[in-house]
Amino acid sequence: MGKGTELVVTEGSLLQVAKSQATSLADAFIGVTAVIIVDESGSMEMHDSRGGKSRFEVACEELAKLQRGNPGRFLVIGFSSDVQPRIGGVPVLQGGGTDMAKALHYAKEYDVLGMKFFLVSDGEPDSKEKTLEEAKRFRNTISTIFVGPEADPLGRDFLQKLASASGGQSLTADRVMELAERVETLMLGAGA
């Protein structure tokens, strides 16, 4: 977030839960059971999702729905060329590159016993090799959710390799229409 920008907060996010319970943000982190790493790169601006919206817009809508239904359970991390925690639960479209390896390196800090990891992307990182190396370092699994176009087998295939590298599962959200449902399925351990 740049200077002077207002922090947007969604219902069920870590920050909203901390404020509503009059507790510290550190105390709100105690309830986190999953980290959702969201692609905020330029390719997420493509308007090929439901209702003519961008992949990013629909991913944000689904992420908001997921957090409302599971308050305080998710740490959201956004990435493009840079990586930022989104304690308000709302990703910020940064544009730029897709430094997925950097995002995984950052998220590794939360790789504690029982934590679940989800990476939401259209699957085209700056460095596939570095990204796979980072994924292999995780003790917990990383499940991936492909939100790119159906006609793009390269992005989908790479996310399947990334999930396999950590023992996770790879799913395709129907043009990000089912992101919340897919994450909830994986949270319950169905096949994960």
Short description:
The chain is an alpha/beta fold.
Q: What does this 3D model show about the protein?
A:
Helices cover about 35% and strands about 15% of the residues. It is of the alpha/beta class. The protein has a 6-stranded mixed beta sheet, with helices on both faces. The protein is globular and about 45 Å long. The termini are far apart. The relative contact order is 0.17.
* CA-based shape: globular
Mean pLDDT: 87
Point out poorly predicted stretches: none
What is the alpha-carbon Rg in Å?
15 Å
- Distance between the ends: 33 Å
- Fraction of residues in helix: 25-40%
The total beta strand count reads 6
Bin the strand percentage.
15-25%
Largest sheet: 6 strands, mixed
Count of runs of 4 or more consecutive helical residues = 7
Structural class: alpha/beta
- Strand arrangement within the widest β-sheet reads 3-2-1-4-5-6
| Helix and strand sequence | HHEHEEHEHEHEH
Keywords:
six-stranded mixed beta sheet, 34% helix, alpha/beta, 7 helices, 192 residues
